[in-house]
Amino acid sequence: MDKWIYVLDMALSYGITGYIMFRFMSEVYDRKYGENFKYFISFLVFVVAAIGLNILGIPIFKIIFLLISLCLISYSLFIFDKKWMLIYDFVFALYIIFSDVISVVIVSLIMDTTIEGVEESFNFLFLSGICNQIILLCGFYIFVSIFKKNELNTLKIVQNIFLMLLAVFEISVLYYFYITIQQNSSGIALAYICFGFIGLDIYLVYLFEAISKRYQLEREMDLKEQQVIMQNTYYKSIEAQYDYSRRLIHDMKNHMQTVEELYANDNGDMAQSYARTIYRKMDELGSRFKCSNRFLTIIINNKLIKCDENDINVTLKIEDVGIEFMDFFDVTTIFSNLLDNAIDACLELSVDERHIEIKLFKFNDFITIVVCNSYNGKIDYKNNELKSTKEGEHMGVGLKNVKAAIEKYNGSIQYKAEEMFRVEILISSS
User: Fold this and answer.
1) Which of 53, 98, 126, 287 has its CA at a distance of 20 to 30 angstroms from the CA of residue 353?
2) What is the pTM of this model?
3) Burial letters 344-358, b for 16+ CB under 10 A, else e
4) Residue 161 is part of which domain span?
5) What's 390's domain CATH number?
6) Alpha-carbon distance 123 to 151, whole Å?
7) What are 328-365's pLDDT values in tens digits?
8) Which DSSP category does 265 fall into?
9) Distance CA 407, CA 412 (A)
């Protein structure tokens, strides 16, 4: 009878653990598949494997199995940012381990026995399992709300390594104390350690969220400053065009008289050439590019001015597609960084080799952005990713920001280095 109680307890306990685990991943990650069958089969496999491994009675095997299961299920069934998957899974594993340890400690205190006494009694183990399930279910939504509120999207590699090492350290300490005191203590010290680790982990989540927000704010401030500079440059160019137009209009009467005199003196070819010069100067009065998106208009015209100053030939094939769904910070990030990179690449070449082509069009439900530029033939690839060849501490930051902005809209970016260096971006507009 006791054995059946033990099996029932294991099935119920790991069933609740598996349910909580899949709910956690569904809340924090995005599902890869629409059908529930694959997730249900994976849930059953986890529960059966966990029960089978628990029969061995080796705690460290249970911990390793839990960590491996979390990573495998996350990788195979959910969409996630690879940089943060290990962090989220490690912390969630700690939550499950803490719940299991605390439930054993609570039963040992209530029944006035040691941890070893709880493990040797089927009845006590059953009570411990029930207690563990209650803790998991009651604390789950609080735990998930902390994660969803504090998305650690901008943590650096050093902070990632620190969190993983901390998780390994906490698990090692818990395992050591669990083995050391289970024969002669009710586990009060172990409970204190568990609550201390929980408090530390929650504090670190909020601390790294503050760091993440600060980094994001600094990035937005840099983009805002960049936009202000571009707007000032654009407005100065408009003011210069206005002054130029006033002078041209003021002299228009004299220009027309000159054309008439050339025709009167049978200098038709010279008159036509003079007229074309006047038309060209009149065309220069307006902006070279204009669309319904004010920010894109400013960005493109600002970069065109920079290209003119550096004798870079520019070809525009831009349709007036709707990109209002994109945040103006992201529009600035994508176009400014790509065009700045293209201009920098052209500046390494002779004047007659400098050329940039910019395309923007919509095909089906996708916005397509293409930037082609001439370059010196040198491209730096590392781990199948394009790396910036610029010197300085911000090397490659622009390219990373472009990729991050595109991924917010489920977009993709590709690089092609042929006769021209080509960047192709696809962004879903739906």
Assistant:
1) 287
2) 0.46
3) ebbeeeeeeebbbbb
4) 2-220
5) 3.30.565.10
6) 41
7) 778 888 888 899 889 999 999 998 899 999 999 988 78
8) T
9) 7
